[in-house]
Design a protein that fits this description.
Elements: E1 3-6, E2 12-16, E3 19-23, H1 42-72, E4 75-79, E5 84-89, E6 92-97, E7 100-105, E8 115-121, E9 124-131, E10 134-141, E11 152-156, E12 159-162, H2 163-172, E13 180-189, E14 212-226, E15 229-243, E16 248-252, E17 258-262, E18 268-290, E19 296-318, E20 322-326, E21 334-344, E22 347-354, E23 368-378
Antiparallel strand pairs: 1-2, 2-3, 4-5, 5-6, 6-7, 8-9, 8-11, 9-10, 11-12, 13-14, 13-23, 14-15, 15-18, 16-17, 18-19, 19-20, 19-21, 21-22, 22-23
Length: 379
């Protein structure tokens, strides 16, 4: 190995282990060179030779260390706790959580458009990138202020689902008004929404203030056409009390026709007929957004309602006795009618007019029942 040393005179001398320095100009040793300034000591020659050896040793040690480091990284495990473990093996990374394992390939030389899914928890963003059938995972810590109160978000390319967006989506989704608890008043008459009675039905005159109607609507389904319009159906129970105002109850004649049964010999406190129907509506509803943020909506709905009788009885309560008699009393087992509803915020009203007569045809007086009332609470 040739080592050239430049001296103060500007000339170069060749230095080797076994000889003195030779001037490249006159090819003489430094002791014989006519350039008096060109002097070099044996100590300097030995020092330069030793320094060259050390540099070679350091370079060889560096390459050996790098080689063993790469081999050690081919299979390593990084334990992040009891639930999560990261395992590096060759070109694959395994992210293991309990019994589940996610495999990520480290090869990122693909040039095709990636399929990216982003999941955000608080100020952490996890990107799952799929390209050419391979998967990569990237974790980023978000430091901007707007993400401090962020709970969860999942972003799959153009499709975005998050707690906040789900909440907004739920707010925008059409929701009808049927389910809830309602209270109203019952009555009937010989015409629609009329309380007039004829001679045949005069014995069934009601005390309207005590003839209560209770509706428990337990199921509701909404089918939106737009955000503010759609169809509503469901399932409910209708409990009706008809409090008679005169001292008569329901009885039968020989033809099983409903006639008055006099109570002149009984001093009573209550004299009523109770019915229970299972109801199913089909309503069309439209809503009008109100207020600065349009969160509150004024709604109107109308449609049909059907009922199936599941029970009926009369009850006479006196000071000494409480007589309850279960019977069908020729009441219509199936009935249908029209209904309308309207409301804003906590104020909601309803009305039902049945088109089916109260009693079966030719088995009792001709009466058309109806009820009106308030929605006390919505489900």
């Amino acid at each position: 190995m040739r080592i050239l040393q430049k001296y103060d005179c500007g000339n170069l001398f060749e230095i080797n282990k076994f000889s003195d320095a030779l001037c490249t100009v006159c090819s003489k040793a430094d002791t014989e060179c006519f350039h008096k300034k060109c002097t070099i000591s044996n100590t300097q020659i030995k020092y330069n030779t030793l320094l060259s050896k050390h540099l070679r040793i350091i370079a060889i040690a560096f390459f050996i260390s790098a080689f063993f480091s790469l081999n050690l990284l081919k299979a390593q495990e990084f334990d992040l706790g009891d639930s999560v473990k990261i395992i590096s093996n060759d070109s694959m990374i395994y992210i293991q959580q309990k019994n589940q394992k996610i495999i990520v390939n480290n090869d990122t030389t693909n040039t095709q458009k990636p399929d990216t899914t982003k999941i955000r928890f608080g100020n952490k963003s996890i990107s799952i990138i799929k390209i050419d059938g391979e998967t990569y995972i990237k974790v980023i810590e978000l430091k901007d202020e707007k993400n401090k109160n962020f709970d969860f978000e999942m972003d799959d390319d153009n499709a975005k689902i998050s707690k906040k967006s789900e909440k907004k989506k739920k707010e925008d989704k059409f929701k009808g008004h049927f389910a809830g608890f309602e209270i109203g008043l019952n009555n009937y008459g010989t015409d629609y929404f009329s309380t007039s009675l004829n001679n045949e039905s005069d014995f069934m005159e009601l005390n309207t203030g005590k003839s209560l109607n209770f509706n428990l609507n337990i199921i509701e389904y909404s089918f939106g056409i737009t955000h503010n319009a759609g169809f509503v159906t469901g399932l409910g129970f209708e409990f009706n009390n008809y409090r008679f105002d005169k001292p008569y109850n329901l009885g039968y004649n020989e033809a099983r026709y409903i006639v008055p049964d006099t109570l002149s010999n009984i001093i009573y406190d209550k004299n009523k007929l109770s019915t229970t129907y299972l109801t199913v509506p089909l309503l069309f509803e439209f809503q009008i957004p109100m207020g600065p943020k349009e969160k509150n909506k004024l709604f109107f709905s109308a449609g049909l309602i059907g009922g199936l009788k599941i029970g009926s009885h009369t009850r006479i309560t006196s000071k000494d006795n409480d007589l309850k008699t279960k019977d069908d009393y020729n009441l219509s087992p199936f009935r249908y009618g029209i209904t309308a509803r309207a409301g804003y915020k906590m104020i909601n009203i309803f009305a039902i007019q049945y088109l089916t007569p109260f009693f079966e045809k030719n088995k009792g007086p001709y009466l058309l029942p109806f009820s009106v009332g308030l929605v006390l609470t919505s489900f």
